[in-house]
Amino acid sequence: MPDTPAGPTPPAVFTSAVESLRSATLRPELTVTEIPAPGTLAPWSFALAADVTPARHGRDSELGTGRFVLLYDASSPDAWGGPFRVICFAQAPLETEMGVDPFIAEVAWSWLVDALADRGAVYTAASGTATRILSTGFGELEAQGQGAQIELRASWSPYDHDLAAHVEGWSELLCMLAGLPPAVEGVSLLSARRVGRE
Questions:
Q1: Which 8-state DSSP code applies to residue 160?
Q2: Is residue 1 one of the residues assigned to a domain?
Q3: Which of 46, 130, 138, 180 is the most exposed, having the fewest neighbouring CB atoms within 10 Å of its CB?
Q4: How far is the C-alpha of 116 from the C-alpha of 110, rounded, in Å?
């Protein structure tokens, strides 16, 4: 880990949290890599990127992609309600008719909340946005036709430094947005929907 304003040696609780992320059992449909973490959001941070396989080398997956960032600040910023904060991002293409569904954003958020609950992740101060993106190609891009995507950005403050359940919930969300069956029984998909553009 590179030196940061907090010093070259990370606090033991942060190191333990990172190890819990590295030892988590993530969905096998994901290719997960450690990436440079943002250095300006907190004294200590750690980040993962994930693509739903198969993905083209060096590009985000056409099936779905996401980021998971852990922040640590021993001063426990008021907005966080604790020393840790998780920030996550997940994106996946949708069939156009799914993109115009007025409830798709609520469904995406509920999938995250349910995935975290199913794994026993305990947290506070959750917030986020779910965005439907509709697009139509023109000119040189006219052949692409119409397309749709769903993007979910969320953050929350874990109650402790064992974060395996948190990253496992994020991996489940990413796979479900990509149209893969849920790993936990009792959760239903809207439909199988893998075509990015019509």
A1: S
A2: no
A3: 138
A4: 10
